[in-house]
């Protein structure tokens, strides 16, 4: 059970504590923030509302602790990460319970997220020892006009204090994907978890605490973004920000000082389907890629660009699979569960109503109960509809019919997003040419967009790198 057993010390009454200076603490103000269960729409948990003063203290201790942590032998850092990974996997059940209750993640997927996160922590520890254990040696006479009179040794050094801000949809996995690389490299971490997902993240942080990390190397502050959000991102003690989310990242990039930023801000992942594609394979991947976790994934299929000649058949096959999706509470391991909040559900509904008003074909009846929205495929969507461009982050998928490959590429590249995309065709030469033309960080061939395996690069459309997955 969450907040019991080894996790009993992270909760006080019905309010979860924040983590600073190696201890679980209560906010001095006595204020807390409610976390609403997306299924019941009632308060499920409460977390501390940290003040700016408490953030300052966490930053201060993180700065001093990092200096000592950076001198800790690399093998020792890896040893602690392996220990944290084992503890995380050992206690997957209570953490998964939190994921089910605060972000409505299907029960089976919730367990998978925790186990996967433990594996990623261990993998990062191993890779870190290999990568950071090497340096470079240069000699001066490799450059014209120089004698062999100088030698240069280079090695990688930590940045300092890393501010990590993961999103609600993977509050454990996308937290450890920031935490583990930072720690193995000798940095300290200040984690600001999303409100929805904060309790899952606090349980995860306790696993690192139990592993024996030194005081101050890891801190986790909770609270209202309106009160401590800007204060955190503009804090002079922060040496790097790693953020996963939406438009908030744009605001962060404008307000942050001249420090490194690592961001992933959503996607409108296009699925281009050619005439020669295996339509059964395409349909299976569209449904899996577009509707798993109710479409609340940055790498979900967000728009299908199907050649007109095969569109009718494809839509028919997708509809047949959509009809088999189960809809209900996450505890029942349903395929479609409530979206994270009422505001999210309202936004999705706004996109649906816009498409309806402008003449899209509804392949299913639009149905919503509270935060639960039934899966919906929209056919004959046109570029003047919002759903053609905006990211719904819900179980609604638009199909645009195209008359040429160039038309599909143009739509893909006209998007403000550039995370992932996919191409379905039996012609590998066409697939590679189209992939090269798509302005996205990763292109999957005959497979739906996805993040993972977790050790693969996760690219956005940012030169000089691009990932092609076959």
TrEMBL record:
It comes from the Eukaryota. Its main location: cytoplasm. Its EC number is 1.2.1.9. InterPro entries: Ald_DH/histidinol_DH, Ald_DH_C, Ald_DH_CS_CYS, Ald_DH_CS_GLU, Ald_DH_N, Aldehyde_DH_dom, ALDH-related_metabolic_enz. Signal peptide: none annotated. It is found in: Cytoplasm. PROSITE patterns: ALDEHYDE_DEHYDR_CYS, ALDEHYDE_DEHYDR_GLU. It is an enzyme of class 1 (oxidoreductase). It catalyses: D-glyceraldehyde 3-phosphate + NADP(+) + H2O = (2R)-3-phosphoglycerate + NADPH + 2 H(+). Residues 24-458 form the Aldehyde dehydrogenase domain. The keyword Cytoplasm applies. One of its GO terms (cellular component) is cytoplasm. GO terms for molecular function: glyceraldehyde-3-phosphate dehydrogenase (NADP+) (non-phosphorylating) activity; lactaldehyde dehydrogenase (NAD+) activity. The active site is at 264. The keyword NADP applies. Gene3D superfamilies: Aldehyde Dehydrogenase, Chain A, domain 1, Aldehyde Dehydrogenase, Chain A, domain 2. Pfam families: Aldedh. Keywords: Cytoplasm, NADP, Oxidoreductase. Belongs to the aldehyde dehydrogenase family. This is NADP-dependent glyceraldehyde-3-phosphate dehydrogenase. It comes from Vitis rotundifolia (Muscadine grape).
């Amino acid at each position: 059970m969450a907040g019991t057993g080894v996790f009993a010390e992270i909760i006080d009454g019905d309010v979860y504590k924040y983590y600073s200076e190696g201890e679980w603490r209560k906010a001095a103000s006595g204020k807390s923030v409610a976390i609403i269960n997306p299924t019941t729409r009632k308060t499920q948990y409460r977390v501390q509302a940290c003040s700016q003063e408490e953030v300052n203290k966490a930053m201060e201790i993180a700065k001093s602790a990092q200096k000592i942590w950076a001198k800790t032998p690399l093998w020792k850092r890896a040893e602690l990460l392996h220990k944290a990974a084992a503890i995380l996997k050992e206690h997957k059940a209570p953490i998964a319970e939190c994921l089910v209750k605060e972000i409505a993640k299907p029960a089976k997927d919730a367990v998978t997220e925790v186990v996967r996160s433990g594996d990623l922590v261990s993998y990062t520890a191993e890779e870190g020892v290999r990568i950071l254990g090497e340096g470079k040696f240069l000699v001066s006479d490799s450059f014209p006009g120089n004698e062999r009179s100088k030698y240069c040794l280079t090695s990688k050094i930590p940045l300092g204090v890393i501010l990590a801000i993961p999103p609600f949809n993977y509050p454990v996995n996308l937290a450890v994907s920031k935490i583990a690389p930072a720690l193995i490299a000798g940095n300290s971490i200040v984690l600001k978890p999303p409100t929805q997902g904060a309790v899952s993240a606090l349980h995860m942080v306790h696993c690192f605490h139990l592993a024996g990390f030194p005081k101050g190397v890891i801190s986790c502050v909770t609270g209202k973004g309106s009160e401590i959000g800007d204060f955190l991102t503009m804090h002079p003690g922060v040496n790097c920000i790693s953020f996963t989310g939406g438009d908030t990242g744009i605001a962060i990039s404008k307000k942050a000082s001249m420090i490194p930023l690592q961001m992933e801000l959503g996607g409108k992942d296009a699925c281009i389907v050619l005439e020669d594609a295996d339509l059964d394979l395409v349909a299976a991947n569209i449904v899996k890629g577009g509707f798993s976790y109710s479409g609340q994934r940055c790498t979900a299929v967000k728009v299908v660009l199907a050649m007109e000649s095969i569109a009718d058949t494809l839509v028919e096959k997708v509809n047949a699979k959509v009809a088999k999706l189960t809809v209900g509470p996450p505890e029942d391991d349903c395929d479609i569960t409530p979206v994270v909040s009422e505001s999210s559900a309202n936004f999705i509904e706004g996109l649906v109503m816009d498409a309806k008003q402008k003449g899209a074909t509804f392949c299913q009846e639009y149905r919503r109960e509270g935060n639960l929205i039934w899966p919906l495929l929209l056919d004959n969507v046109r570029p003047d509809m919002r759903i053609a461009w905006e990211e719904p982050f819900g179980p609604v998928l638009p199909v645009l019919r195209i008359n040429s490959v160039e038309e599909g590429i143009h739509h893909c590249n006209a998007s403000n997003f550039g995370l992932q995309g996919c191409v379905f065709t039996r012609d590998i030469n066409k697939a590679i040419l189209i992939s090269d033309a798509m302005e996205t960080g990763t292109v999957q061939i005959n497979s739906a967009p996805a993040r993972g395996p977790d050790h693969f690069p996760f690219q956005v459309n940012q030169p000089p790198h691009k990932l092609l997955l076959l």
